[in-house]
Fold these 4 entries.
Entry 1:
Amino acid sequence: MTEKLAPLLPWIRWIQDEEASGVLKQELDAAVGRAGKVYNIVRIMSLNPGALSAAMRLYLSTLRRRSERLGRPEREMIAVVVSQANHCHY
Amino acid sequence: MAERFARDWRSAGLPESTQVVLGFSEKLTRHPSEMSRSDVEGLRRVGFGDEDIHDIVQIAAFFNYINRVADALGIPPEPEMKPWARRDS
């Protein structure tokens, strides 16, 4: 079985952080505010800032929500199990 | 550590309700067309209401979406992520 190698460079271009403006810049700033840094999953969507915003809003409204029976740890566990089932290392 | 957890969550001594959530999410990921009312009832049986059930589905579906975006566009790993394969020189 061939082991998949991690890509060193993405397969499409992305907008460099320092060249971001408008909606994209807002999203990058928001990402830093949330996580202390911009993750590559945010950068990879930089060519469509509208899609990036929508995806981040979906993330925040589901994973960053808490309820009595479904807390943050359980929500994050779902993410880990799904990613593993998809063999997605990222 | 996340990798080990993902492989071994069934034997990690998690509460039953959590195991049902993770089993549901795994089934949705691998066999989406086989999902049925009884899967939802399984979540209800361990105490989740409609709002939580909806959120569970949204989270699982979101990560299925984001995994595909990452895999299709060749996202490089973050510096702090363990490299998932080493190049033999």
Entry 2:
Amino acid sequence: MPRVTRRGLFRGAGSAAAALVFPAAGLSKAHPRAPGEGDARRAVEFAVNGAPHRLDVEPCRTLAEVIREDLELTGTKVVCDRASCGACTVLLDGRAVFSCHLLAAQADGGSVVTIEGLSEGETLHPLQQAFIEFDAAQCGFCTPGMIVALRAALDRNPRATAGEIRRSIAGNLCRCAAYDHIVAAALSVARGT
Amino acid sequence: MLHCVVVRSRIARGRVASIDGAAAQRVPGVRLILTPWNFPSMPEERSPEGEIVHRRAPIAGDVRFVGDEIAAVVAETAAAAERAANLLVIEYETSPAVIEPEDSLKPGAPPLTAAGNLVGGKAEVYERGDLRAGESEAELVLERAYSTEVQHHNPLEPHCCVAVWQRGVLTLFDSNQGVHAVKDHLVARLGLPENRVRVVNEYVGGGFGSKNRSKPYHYIAAAAAKMTGRPVRLWTDRRDEFIASRHRAKSRHRLRGGVKKDGTLTFLFHETIGQDGADRLLAGGAAGSGVTERLYRCPNVRTEVLQVHTNTQSPVVFRGPLAAEETFCLEQFVDELAHLAGIDPLEFRLRNFAEVDQVSGKPYSSKGLRRCYESGAQRFGWRWRAPGSVRDGVMRRGIGVGSAILGDLDYEPSLVCVGWNADGTATVTAGVSDIGTGVEQVLVQIAAEELGIGLAEVTLVMGDSLATPYSIDSSYGSRTTMLVGPAVRAAAADARSQILAVAAKRWNVAAEDLVISESVISSRYDPTRRAPVRDVARAEGREQIAAVGKRHAAMPGVAIANFAAHFVEVAVDADTGQVRVLRAVCAHECGRWINPLLVESQIQGGFVQGMGMALFEERSMDRRNGMMLNDNMLSYFVPTARDAPEEHVVIDAGSPDPSNTINAKGIGEPPLVAAGGAIANAVYNAIGARVRAYPITPDKVLNALGSVRAD
């Protein structure tokens, strides 16, 4: 059986160019973007989870796209791409933002934290640990954005009440509706229990 | 890897006359444009009975609803594909369309199939007893109409896949609820041998019924990958999820029933009209699920179900399909009968309690509904009061009860493998995917307990149709645990017996004398005979000990179903019409709770989805052209953290069920199904007026209160 992994496909391994309808002309294999794609790139610098990055991006690309595709941090999810569900929530300079609704260029000079940045090595962030203990993730797709939003809320208000917690995640949709366990998990962290 | 964007029809009915791709072709990075004229022809498909199955091609020129697939663009980047898709010049020949179910059967309505617009040509009828006799015995008679609207699954992870052909094998990394189901469909439609199709999917970002089968996008991605010779990624954006991923059907209900003065039901009549879309490509049916026949004891029952074709998406199962629609309406009607008779709605339900299956006459393997009612009522503090009697300024408070019956499981095959590793850990291989229910955890628990080792020592390999046996087609119907769990238990039991036989031989004792507990094999009778499982396994070297387990036969002579009773308190703002669910007590009986945290998650989550269907969610459609107006997550209202009840109690009112070897039943769907009636009945209790059209939105509440202001 051929050894193919989805991650390998995203990196460009495993593609065999043959019998294309419109032959690729002058396409650089090293860089996946086609020539003439969009406007001229510009350099953008921001830290992600503490590590500095310098990227050349087209101005039209969103922060979510760049995080996922260029930096391969796929914890952040794109669901609605319209700032209407919260799945793409990351921290930018400590504030929870919808990364699908920000251009990568708007993060220039800033500091981004994604879900991957919450744990330290093998040690989970208390919120991540609480999510496990309270079964606060069902399908898990809203979970990265949800935890990041909660982290921002608890950073600002460490002793948040259940009502304040609910308000802080009003913009994070969970279709599985795991809200009761999500709030319980966050509350346990707020109460230090 | 290439990116594929699907192009969808903007008209509701007609044909694509032409597609001009000249401008699209010139977008840098475009590699392929698929149209109805160059989409590869599919082999003839035959049903298991050998009949030719006629299906619309995945990309075709005939259009049946706004959103139907008519072209696809494949490019080096998603942005290029989108840009090119927008540059396609498409000409249509538009035909008159039928949008609403009411229009479908009117004289002069265009026929959407050769057999007309009524599926099957006639209503599906169930009848028992004598309806006329029941009506004449009734001392109080009521007739009411209700309705439910379209509910969109809206899983956060959209439908998406990556298709790649390598050395004659088609691999699909996909988001679905069952790798074997999707693989089966691909094999049937593409005419490929089963060993040359591989569907990979372990964890799913939500499905709720929308991802049980293959859909046109699978075939579009596979064709694009074949024609370009490169892997192709196809991702559905949120708008396309709304207009083309299918949904719960809209339904219209007419209920007529009668009781004696003491509240005993004498007859029930339930007519349902379900909107079935333009064909039955994916339909799990649009109406009728046997709730009216089964939920209460009633000697005279007739149900008539009509399903009608319209130029809209055909529905697909959504958590409690048909049952939710039917129950939401029946439970309001039963409440109305109770009030007509002047009886507490809870007491009314208990008076009409069905001990055995009302259709087959068989006893249930277990039925804890009475305990659901009683324990739920006690925990809730149920004390019935007159409608509209509890006010707090502008707020009106109300309480309501609703119940549910759902599901059964006849025999279905399920095969699971369990193997000891050389170090005493174990691997379970099962062809399931975890759609968010935590079934992975449940199956690991069952295996670990049976094997006598720790949870961390068991790994479940799942979600790969070439690497796992057929354990289930797809996860739906609240049955994965009770179908696959016993197969896991059987395989683990066999693996345990085998390793005990090895140890018995080595120690020269009878295998029956030995047990495994906490990863140690020991003799019941001789305490010196003990060794870690690890040592026994290691001594076998590479002679791996492995077992296969099958799901046992169905238990004969019983009916199997899951039951629930929900008690809800709402607050209704009489000025704005907004309804808030303040608290809910959900009492369920579903056999053994193998993992209580996971069961609680399903109950709470299902309740909130039912609340969404009851209060917020609906499709708003332009009747003239069949276009969805709220095709986004801002104007289609999925419940948020602030909508979910702040107090949400869950009760286990069941008992271990004897119909399978893990004593479990199902829990995925009943929580949604029981929620709507309870909420609607609470709204009535709050304001003293009934809203019979779901979702119970503020405008309908204000209408019911008679205080809609003309603006």
Entry 3:
Amino acid sequence: MRGRKERRGINWVNWLIPLIALGISIGMVLKYYQKEGLWVEVSFRDVRGITPLQTPVKYKGVEVGKVEEVEIDKSDLNRFILKLLIYPQYEYLIKKGTLFWKATLEISPDKIANLDTILKGSYIAVLPPTTNRQELEKLPTELYFIGLEHPPGEKGYHFVLISGSGDLGKDAPIVYKGVQVGKLYSKKLGKDGKLRYQGLIFEKYQYLLFKNLKFYRIDPIKFKASLDSIQFRVPSLRLLLTGGVGIYIGDGDGVPKEEYILYSDLEDIQYAPEVIKLVTTSKLPLSKVVYNNIVAGKVVSSEYDLKRDLKILRIKFKKEFFHLLKKSPYFYIQYPSLSLQNLNLRKLLSGAYIQMGLKGVEAPIQKSYRLMEIPPERRGYDFQLKLVGEPKVSAGEGIYYRGIKVGEIGKVELEGTGLKVIGKIYNRYRYLINDSTLFYPISAVELEATLSKISLQVPPMVQLIKGGITFITPANRDLKSRKFPLFSSLSQLKEWLKLHRDGAVIQLTAPSPAGVGKGTPIYFRGFKAGEVLGVKWNPELGRVVIESFIGKKFLSYLNSSTLFYRQQRIRAYFSLSGVKVALPPAEGLLKGAIEMEGNSSRFSPLNSYPLLSWEEYQSRNYFNIYIVAPKSYGVK
Amino acid sequence: MRDQVRGVVICPVCSHIQPPGEECQFCGAHLHPRKPGGIGKSFSYSLGAFAFLIPANLLPMMEVIKLGKVYGNTIIGGVLAFFEHRDYFIGIVIFVASILIPFLKLGILWFLLAIAHFKALRRCRLLGIRLYQFISFIGKYSMLDVFVVVLMVSFIQFGEFVSIKAGPAVVPFSLSVIFTILATEAFDSKLLWDRS
């Protein structure tokens, strides 16, 4: 029938319609569910307010994608991975260096921002590294990002710092010459086990990137120590704990890179790779090598050679100092001392250090050098001090004679139950001591009395504080001994002298001390008979009392006939070992002397003797007038 | 007695009975004893309608944007949402209008087509004709859900606080309804009694 015929005729059309319909339907579904676009994974710590399939990804307010899924990061349960679908027409925004952050309402004392999120809901903001389309095209596409927890506050250059060790806090500042020029804003552990920080150099400092620059880590502790010299953009206590990143700029130019290595220390960059060994017997902890008050090298490691009882220090020198090693360097240990001249707390607190000096002779750099315990120019006569009583003495303390440092205490060590004290008198002052020398500590009181006579190179205050050791050399002897007594005080010394009958302590009186002070020698007919121990003012007498020591040999001349008078000129003196033409390098030390004169008799000293002036003496008209001439001879 | 037995044709427009020809003698309309296309056309439209029902149910029908958040719901999702909110009445209404009826119509239409095609189902034709009347009647109400969406979209536009957007499912749903109507219209109920 006709109906059937008709049906067959248009059969193919019949199937076309459903097929097209089916095609359209499937197409619609596919298009809806598998929208094309770029899948990007961004890791965040905080994903509150982000809803899968709904939260949009926006670039400057324009929706360029959507958050499709939110997952917990399996490798770090504190983080979430957002799977974003970026619409195909915006795929070019997603390049290396693109930033993602969560934009939500921010109300804080600093600012109020993103108010539109109250109405529109949170969104993920995206910012490509540059707004220049051509540059953007050249950058490689990146699919995995670390999201920022806060929107980037500054514009600038973003980069990655790779660090093998250490752990800087997030938000750690990047500092150059005391100014904060950038900051870190995120941290991620890469698949190679290295930490990757994302950092930013503020826009106005971006020019630094065109220099040969290296980043290094500043430990939180070190950072703290230098805080007084860094100006921060936003001061924050947090920074004390987080440490920071420093910039080191070398010579030449550089190009901004995407990734930089974060050196673990400034010194890593600054130091030449070669290691020099220093060998020493000292057990002191030493950490740096100083040249001309600048740290030139550091101790990288140290080992102890048990067999030879030596410590070997491995030193690395800064690149700019390394060439100095060609000039025959010598090294010695410098102890920090408290002196009001250079009151440098930092030096004081940092302990002993290695001082480097140069001989100046060109010589090849050696692999190892000796580390001396004392500077060469301060070599001297070493001796040991036997302690009498319990004097307080410390290593590094100075040995003074009439205000001038003539030696020092080297070491104070515990030996058994007692103390072993090593001292030395510098070579140029060796003549001041001999086997009869007795040491005692300077006390402030002693010093006061001699202040008028002492030529001080440092202000008097220093002496009072310093303390130190001083000595008297009562008799003419040779210098052979290496052991000298150290008394607890001058009075103890005097007591000892009396006991040992090595001599006697007598008192001279004078209206003023003029020209006489501690250490002023007392001569008897050309021989040193004794020494002034101290000068004091006696208010009752209204005179200066000069305590003097007269050696044993001359005690017989101490009787009622004895006269003491002042001498003003330098003379030649006889000593048992020969004629000594006494013109010591430091004339000041022997300025002034006291002459003693008298008849030999029984030792019967008066309570006190007046110290006569030269004129007074002459007027007494005694025999044996000494003619003094500038030329050095003296005849008995 | 049926028209074909009598050898007459009923004009589809003015229903005048006349001998077969090209044109109706009374109104001038094109004269054909049965609707053109027959089972095939109706069947193909119905398949198309069914095809469109797939996206209509998988894609969201309506997107509610509350404070920036987009809440999209498919038809079924919407029904379930209403049930969850204990709005059983609305849920049932939507279920009936947007899910039950579209599928039911197609199902019935296929049943009718089957009756027309297979001799074995001949005895059901009385049931079939009743069903045909039924689906013809409710055909217009198929668009109920679409109208709901349209009304919601036009009324609820309160800026950022809440606004409603028609979802992508609206188009295939509407197409499905259209095709269902086309299928129903293409089906000539007289075919139920043909082939006797």
Entry 4:
Amino acid sequence: MPSVTFKVNGMERTVAVETATTLLNVIRDDLGLTGTKQRCEGGDCGACTVIMDGRAVASCLVLAVEAAGKDIVTIEGLAKEGEPDPIQQAFIAKGAVQCGFCTPGMVMSAKALLRKNPHPTEAQVREAIVGNLCRCTGYAKIVEAVLEVSRRG
Amino acid sequence: MAEFELLGQSLERKEGPAKVTGEFIFPTDVRVPGMVVGKILRSPHAHALIKSIDTAAAENMDGVLAVVTAQTCPVPIIVYGQDKVDETMLATDKVRYIGDEVAAVAAVDEATAERALAAIRVDYEILQAYTDYNSCLDEASAEGAPLIHDGHAKNVAQEVHILRGDPAKGFAQADRVFEAEYRTSRVHQAYLEGNVAVAHYRKDARLEIWASTQWPSRTREDVAAILGLDISRVRVLETHVGGGFGGKFCPKLALLASVLSMKCGWPVRIANSLKDDFEAARPYGSSHIRLKTGVRKDGVIVAKELLTIMDNGAYSASGLACLGVACTRANNVYKCKNIKADGYSPYTNLVPTGAYRGYGNQSLSFAVEREMDRIAKALGMGPAEFRLINATGPNEVTVDGYVVRSNGLADTIKWTAQASELGKRRPDEGPIHYGKGMSSGMHVSGNIISYKLWDASGAIIRVDQDGRVGLITPEPDIGQGSHTALAMIAAEELGVRWEDIYVHPIDTDVAPFGVGAVGSHITTVGGNAVKVAAANARAELAAVAARLLECSPADIDITQGKVCNRALPQRELTLREVAMRYYLENYMPLVARGSWRSVGRKNPDTGLTNPSSAYSFATHVAEVAVDMETGRVKALNYWASHDLGRVINLAAAQGQIEGGVAQGLGFVLSEEMQFGADGRVTNPDFLDYKCPVATDMPAIHTHFVETVDPLGPFGAKGIGELAFVPVVGAIANAVSDAAGVEVTELPITPVRLLELIKRRG
């Protein structure tokens, strides 16, 4: 079995993988980081979204071997020194969390957006999360939460 | 000064921090030591006899820990069902749909489990399959047609025949009669967290199950009954559910994981993939409704006649009860008392149907509310005016025997009509035509169901020696925020600070029974149980405080964690001090109980059953833009006014509506399960089963009417299902209005809409 080394949430990790193992499998099963969710396994729902080298990606579509040497941030890696990220705080404050299953993926997509574009329009926010399905919220308070963070600067 | 300390505010979810950081463990995240992988062998044929099953190769495979078929199951296979008994845990003599469970294996890892499934040899004799639910009613009554289930005269799981008042007399009084046919497709609840169960049959003969279920107490009861175990041997554990919407009542995965664990002794996890959930869970049945409405020229509806056919699928599950609701519920919005309703649930060789938010209400509501707008237009009346003429009001008994107390329907109609400027339509902009549509609805707040013992909820409140309050509720949080709302009710009643109350995850070893997230039950029935428990806890604390403050318990005020004698408020104790005193006097923390039973009952005089303690009402208006050249619909604005009795958590109530609008958009415009002629689901994924995304959503304006129901906790009623039900009619009406066509078939995809536009000329 080949082994793969990458940075996850600031820490270098080495994992033995099969060729067909996805980054999602490694994150959840090998590293025990279950915040990133598994659902469609086809890149359609966004529940598995992580940030890889600065871009929001569907980790179910990334082979573990492709992630070699890359810098990966999962939902668990957002909080800095125990302080939740402003996006995480806004999601709670605005009532953007219902069942919470889409939440990690949504937050990661929002994080990737705000890093590139700190003051997006509403349309740009909606476009950034167009690949993240939510069945509970109708996206309304999720969009409000992201706009709130961008308003606060 | 506000009336309440907490109610009405947008308080943050208790589990918010855990959910936004990824710390929260969903049922699909549960891992227990020694856990092995369970997988299911499913039928590749829609209808076939099982001649033989050979599991020898699978059983002898290295790494395979157990193989179970109906013949080798460690417990007797019994026929069971939620409302009709017609299903077994594993197929016995035949399979009835593509996906039907034939065998289950437990193995050390996924790959081995897959190899084991592939090594099981099943010899099938293929039978003719029925995959079109309409033809089933005709073909099946033909002589010699093979039945899907023995013991039936034809392939019909259920018939409903309802006669209220005197429809013949009513139609005789009508000045005009309107007739139409409406169809909706199979849709999937599309919960983001898949169906899953982890079951461990332990050495002390106790069965522990981690499940993603909308009714943990009921799952426990179902599993115990079906496996032949005393109920106290079964323990169901649940944190929160990652979405349910009516799709997570079925005990199938819990049952199969349990029997595998019985055989191998290890905890077994069975998790459905998205494909499994499309092919073999419990999606919502398609419907075909014929509706005839008689109206007087003054706008009063005098009679109705309807025929509802809802595809039952191969087994009955929770879909069966949807038929009764689809023959009745939506008519109870209006006063008309002369109704003849007939309904049929044909068996088909398709995946069995389950419930979906509304439990059948949305299917009839689509037909009824389309007719309301259509008839209003024909009579030259506004949609709001026509509805107000016919609307039920407070303190009435409706056509199907619903005992309605609080009813804010009229206010919801007036608010949405005004807020949306319903009478005004934006002028066309080239091929873009604008339109508005209205829809009213009503639903139960806790429907009495076929729970063997009773229809109630219990709650336990535990006050620790530091004054912190733990709420032990059996009612699950499936994303609607029930745990936060119940904690708010408890905290409001008890007088504890919001930060000092927490909610225990569900453990049926500790929690009392509850009916679950079904029939919009939790706010009214669950909430009342919590309120009773909180009141009992408060009384015990007040008794202790009264001794400390040398007054009578009736003088005690507990607010925001501070305790005082109302007559001498300067002398204040904290709840912590009182709780510690209780603890020292009793050598244990304070544990208080409460329960509340639904008042729904059968009326012996009328023979009608009042199914709920309270009823919620709502009206919605949608504004859409239709591109007449492409058939594409864009939802622009949405107004929703809800009588929910009393707002508990404002953001959560708004969130329910916003989510309901998204699901309704999908139901009307894009969601459709597609089947091949062989009965296979051809779009079992999120690429081809199109759920609304963030860019599809309109601006949503919500409004609440607080009628303060006499029976609800602090007057509160449910909203979970009614947040979705009226959306279907509102959007369908808006599209019809914009395009100048009559939308009668859902989903109204661009292709179908263009067809209607072309036919219109």
